[in-house]
From TrEMBL:
Source organism, top-level taxon: Bacteria
Domain GST C-terminal: 87-207
GO molecular function: transferase activity
Domain GST N-terminal: 1-81
InterPro entries, alphabetized: Glutathione-S-Trfase_C-like (IPR010987), Glutathione-S-Trfase_C_sf (IPR036282), Glutathione_S-Trfase (IPR040079), Glutathione_S-Trfase_N (IPR004045), GST_C (IPR004046), Thioredoxin-like_sf (IPR036249)
Keyword Transferase on entry: yes
UniProt family annotation: Belongs to the GST superfamily.
Name of the protein in its database record: Glutathione S-transferase
Alphabetic keyword roster: Transferase
Taxonomic placement: Bacteria, Pseudomonadati, Pseudomonadota, Gammaproteobacteria, Vibrionales
Amino acid sequence: MIKLYWHPFSGHAHRVHMLLSILELNFELIPVDLPAGEHQRPEFLALNPFGQIPVLVDGEIVISDSNAILVYLATVYDREQQWLPNTPLARANIEQFLSLAAHRLAGSIAKLRAANLFNRSIDREPLTQEAHKLLKQLQNYQNGRQWLVGTNPTIADLALYSYIKLAPEGGISLADYPVLETWLKRVEGLAGFVPMQLSNVGLRKES
């Protein structure tokens, strides 16, 4: 059985959890106690020397980094190649969004949310500006489209979903981004979709 080392508050882990469920794979969720530092203990570092979740264990195969895991699962277990089409242009377009998720999204919206969740002190103003810039760009791009790449959902949609859904927890309202809110609901309507665990921080705390 596939094992996913995860934490319920991790958007990176959530995107993998979604694909495992959507592909109807047999898997076990293994919680990692981040506040207790379990991810820095020798037994976990033996799986991922960088001390980060998620980590996927599939038999003797061990993969860390959420986007790398998405690529692996879609390549190995999606027989119809919907989630990662085997065409150079589609794959390049998907990689573009995986990179965006790993850098601009993680470095703005996800960082703001983590600061609220774990009471971290950060310089909010530039991160908030970047978050809104990114959301406006995605809104313009997504206008008139159902999915980020092509006519079917792909791992690009899963890679961006979790932290955009969590934007209010970082103090970023989605009210000005109705196209993205519709897209979020579209992802939530997928067969096998797994909801992200929400937290009472940021705008959710104020509402």
